[in-house]
Amino acid sequence: MNTSGIIRKIDELGRIVLPKELRRHLNINPGDDFQILLSEDKIILEKYSYLKSNEKDIVKVINGFIETSNDKILLIINNEIVNRNNDKILPEIIQIINKREIYRNNEIKNYKITNSVIENGRILIYPLVLNSDLYGALIIVSIDNIEKALEIAKTIDNIIRQFYK
Hints:
The chain is of the alpha+beta class. The chain folds into 2 domains: 1-48, Pemi-like Protein 1, Chain: D (Ribbon), CATH 2.10.260.10; 50-162, Beta-Lactamase, CATH 3.30.450. It is built from 5 helices and 8 strands. The longest helix has 17 residues, at 146-162.
């Protein structure tokens, strides 16, 4: 286990302030959910992801779309590509996702998603937002029509929302 060397006091209400550098490094934002885990004499705070808790089912849904199209569909949870050795996405992609707006580029070219993942085609970045919380994103790289990719992303988003009803 890595140590940061940072020491904090607990206030009278049991609160601890996480340093800004740590929050930035771990992409922790106000309102994020955390699980509190106990391991022997340690308290572990783990960022909770609703997508991560349903990851296997969501991946099955996405695989169904991949089988019926020529598109590359990447599920992003906690700034990592699921099922790709949890490859961290590049900061410029994170910035696009954090804007919570659909991004599309209709130009066919190579798009660098991580240091080791480069996809060729048109790109759509679709943030997954539920109850104003950003849970992840879909990145679809398509040789075909980007509007078709948008419809696929909306359909997957609607299916994901069914997990939370």
